[in-house]
């Protein structure tokens, strides 16, 4: 039985992870659960997994936990640093990182330095700290196992191949909630409209990133680090049906495409069971799939995608700046302090204002992230709520 720590257990990915665990009794045991501040849901999850210690990273959650003696006895802390303590003390066979944002980097490093493989859905930690993270994982001899459906598809497509035989990998993108909107309407779209994704049910931040196509830019950087893949070999196409999750094209012209219905539990099951497979009832028949279509990315519709491409090419701390500025801008949009098109403008301004430096140590990454957040606070955080 594989022992799991699930970080971000109350979020969309985390809830799906626990559903996969529930569907496979005898295969997995949850020994750690971590959330930000959703005490009620974490309490219910802890009741379902009596071997799990818990962490809430919001100190304001302390009162809600301490009011429940049974929950309090299982609590390992109320800070982001407590995530690392939870991992180090867990004896886990696999750490599942479903956190959102840069906060996911430190616990991922704690896991790999402790010799624990990580199933990772936390894009931002790979984008911001990929150079350091991959180096540490190789040094420790542990796997970074993707959870994103696109990277799970690439991993399967590359199985048994050698680098010289791979011509390129092609990530597919749904196009997000605004893919059929007139560009002239973008400035006035509401948060609710942006969050109405046509095929996936995801957390708010990644759903906004899908609408800007920033998620695919971040996934290009992820693929670069996870698969040691040159950027020139990574492409993106729009695939509205979300059935083909990625394609690997080989130098002889043949292609391998991984297909499944858009259900995050399938790539999660792959990541949890890796390197084996577990039988499930989550599959579907190809006769159930709709007609499939593919189109090139219309960069005028998705200017954030170009920013991500440019930051990837610049290297060094540019992806860290990109990720931090995007995280702050999306949060401000969700909070009503920025318009949708302002997200691009803020990220572009941050990349122009903040010098790109080399990344040699974790401290270089931490300082670049902090600098981008300071810049945002100085230039954009004081904006008030937009009129509804």
Question: Could you characterize what this model shows?
Answer:
The chain is α/β, with parallel strands linked by helices and 388 residues long. Helix 1 packs across helix 12, helix 7 runs antiparallel to helix 14 and helix 14 runs parallel beside helix 16. Among the domains are: 145 residues, NAD(P)-binding Rossmann-like Domain (Rossmann fold); 91 residues, RNA polymerase sigma factor, region 2, helix turn helix motif (Rna Polymerase Sigma Factor, Chain: A, Orthogonal Bundle), CATH 1.10.1740. Strand 5, helix 7 and strand 6 form a beta-alpha-beta unit.
Relevant terms:
single chain; Rna Polymerase Sigma Factor, Chain: A; alpha/beta; 388 residues; 11 strands; 5-stranded mixed sheet; Rossmann fold
At CATH level 3, the topology of the domain at 2-146 is Rossmann fold
Question: Percent of residues in beta strands?
Answer: 5-15%
What is the class of the domain at 2-146 in the CATH system? Alpha Beta
Unreliable runs = none
CA-based shape: globular
- Overall mean pLDDT score? 95
CA radius of gyration: 20 Å
The helix content is: 40-55%
Largest sheet: 6 strands, parallel
The SSE string, one letter per element, is EHEHEHHHEHEHEHEHHHEEEHEHHHH
Distance between the termini: 51 Å
The CATH superfamily of the domain at 2-146 is: NAD(P)-binding Rossmann-like Domain
Strand order of the largest sheet: 3-2-1-4-5-6
Q: Assembly type of the shown chains? A: single chain
Based on secondary structure, the structural category is alpha/beta
What's the CATH architecture name of the domain at 2-146? Answer: 3-Layer(aba) Sandwich
Q: Give the tally of β-strands.
A: 11
